[in-house]
Write a structure and sequence with these properties.
This protein has helices at about 5-15, 45-60, 75-85; strands spanning about 20, 40. It is mostly helical. It has 2 domains: about 5-40, no CATH class; about 45-85, no CATH class. A two-stranded parallel sheet has the order 1-2. It is elongated.
Length: about 90
């Protein structure tokens, strides 16, 4: 289920007290009124965590030159920025 679908269906699951498993969502939390997202199970790591792990791999192998292939959209730019910050 993509992020846009999770945003729409999560309030219904939350009100019903039914856990929602969202393996492809990029959401960390889905605010529903005054409640938090206790019923959302995210199965993919955050972009911040992916950048940290990638940086650790780069440091471990002492790579000085590498290629990072990705989209040049807003999310891709944020990922690249997080990776660069993690390498410092």
């Amino acid at each position: 289920m993509e992020t846009s679908a999770v945003v729409v269906t999560h309030p219904l699951c939350s009100r019903a007290g039914v856990p929602q498993i969202a393996p492809l969502t990029s959401l960390g939390r889905v605010p529903v009124g005054n409640t938090d997202s206790d019923y959302l199970v995210r199965m993919s790591p955050t972009e911040k965590l992916k950048a940290k792990v990638l940086a650790e791999i780069i440091k471990h192998y002492k790579w000085e030159t590498m290629a990072v292939v990705g989209y040049q959209d807003d999310q891709g730019k944020v990922c690249n920025l997080r990776l660069m910050k993690s390498l410092v």
